[in-house]
Amino acid sequence: MNSNEIDKVLLGTVCLLSVIGLIAISSAGVVMSYNKFGYNHYFLSHQFFYGFLPGIVALFVLQKIDYRIFKKNMFFFLIVTVILLFVVFVPGLGLGLKGANRWISIAGISFQPSEFIKLTFILYIAVWFEKNKKDFSNLFMPFVVLIAIISIPLIMQPDVGTLSVIILTVVIMYFAYGAKIENIFLLGLGGLAGLYFLIKIAPYRMDRFMVFLHPEIDPQGIGYQINQALLAFGSGGFFGLGFGQSRQKFNYLPEPIGDSIFAIIGEEFGLLGISIIVILFLIFALRGFKIASSASDDFGKLVAIGITSLITFQAIMNMAAITSLLPLTGIPLPFISYGGSNLIVSLAAVGLLLSISRYSKAR
């Protein structure tokens, strides 16, 4: 099959989002960097060298490779990443932080296996659906079992935010490939039952839901983060306070370089700045689904739908949570929030999207 040019609009959009992320971290992380390391730009340099650079290399390598080679051995890669989800609990290898066991640390370098399971699970599901196309109507229970298998270690860590994004993504893939409406309905009921169970075993999740309904309650306790985030947005107005002028990053707003970075951007660049980010993610979604519609095979179509949905869902959930439109979830903002593993996986996933666009039917 002859190859086309890659989707340059998608590439430009992602590069712009990544640069915005580095700029945002350079401001939002100054106080934390100095307090922890005595150096203003520790988090910026760490994100650049351990996230952005390897991620960009992965993107440009993967966009050159024919994505169909990933049809082979995906079960092996899935097993490896599932095993890594359990390795986080191994003393000496697993790294715990704030009551969560989500990282593996080897020779001073840490990474988050839950970020990698996002991509390997999407690829495996795409291979599995295409392989069983003729028997697709009988895949409902095996599909549920596969979701349950990856759910166990993610709930144990706990990383329910990541799990929710993965489930939403693969259910969209399932629906797009022709799942029966009644099966989607059953999955929805199962999701609600699972949410009830997760709230019962960890009541703090109900606290997050109550804060979502009533942001004014306990502003110095469970409502602290969302109230500080809303203050940041309110302070920014339309044009913002200006780059580097955020007040909330001075130890007021929790996670200013992570889950809350969208609020810092809103404070410094105002409604105009966050609107640009929303538009960029909208462009990303439109280009991603366009690539899916012109993919040359079912595997490419499913992978493109999966990757586009995964990154779009994360963006929507982060921005909606920090603006009090959804309960807080702890999901990072793709390409922008601090976190090397997330940035590497996101850029690598975009590399696969670009590969699919390269080998697609004429656009």
List keywords for this structure.
13 helices; 363 residues; 66% helix; three-stranded antiparallel beta sheet
Structural overview:
The chain is mainly alpha-helical. It has one domain.
What characterizes the major β-sheet?
3 strands, antiparallel
Number of DSSP helices?
13
The helix/strand class is mainly alpha
| Spatial order of strands in the largest sheet | 1-2-3
Strand tally, please? 3
Which assembly state applies to the chains in this document? single chain
How is this structure best summarized?
The chain is mainly α.
List the helices and strands and how they pair.
Blueprint: H1 8-28, H2 30-37, H3 42-62, H4 74-87, E1 94-97, E2 100-106, E3 109-111, H5 113-131, H6 140-156, H7 160-176, H8 181-201, H9 204-213, H10 224-236, H11 261-293, H12 298-322, H13 340-358
Antiparallel strand pairs: 1-2, 2-3
Helix pairs in contact: 1-3, 1-11, 1-13, 3-13, 4-5, 5-7, 5-12, 5-13, 6-7, 7-12, 10-11, 11-12, 12-13
